[in-house]
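Researcher: Let's walk through a ligand-bound prediction step by step. First, I give you the protein sequence. Second, the SMILES string for zinc ion. Third, you return the three-dimensional complex as structure tokens. Ready?
Model: Ready.
Researcher: Here are steps one and two:
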Amino acid sequence: MEDKIEILRESIGDISSYNQIVLRGRCPYCNEKGTFRQLSYDLENSQITGQTVSLKCEGCSSIVAFSVTQTKFYPAPMLKGLEGLPEEIDKYYQEGIRCISADAPNGAVTAFRKVIHAIGIHYEIAKVNDNKTLYKIIQELYDQEHIVKKLKDALIGVKDIGNDGAHINENEPDIEQALKIKHLIDTVLNSTILCDSNLEFVKGKHSRQD
Ligand SMILES: [Zn+2]
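Model: Step three, the predicted complex:
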């Protein structure tokens, strides 16, 4: 994160910089050092980010928000989370999303770890205040065929990184890792919780027609 952002146009954010290359820096999405083109000229103002403008990475074409006030990328306000999750899972999932938005990767991975626990509670594998380890919850999700082996292995990766986020060590997650974990959690939620509700919907339709 110590990569310096080099402003190439002093008038960044202004209409005169519209569609111009305005800065050089490391892209929060492709992680390459490259140039960014200004996509808008209406500076948006937010309490957290200050004045932001949207930029496009010339390398991977990802669109990022850039705070002109703080000289800092905010990839996360563009972040879209899954919808339609049950409330007891959604509260931790949304917390993870908000942490990414606030550039708080340690908080994000810790929240995503809680999402795994909440999935376990949903399938009655775990309880609130459970002393069952996350490893055991993940293993049982696999044993009861809620998740396939690939997802089980991926989840164990999340569990380990979540541990790194909760303790001070040399493996503390950065925002890139937090985003990767978010994608992984999305895959898990899509193939379990959201898949169940789609199935119920399909079955419901079917029984009405019979
Ligand atoms: Zn990029």
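Researcher: And what stands out?
Model: The radius of gyration is 20 Å. The longest strand covers residues 50-57.
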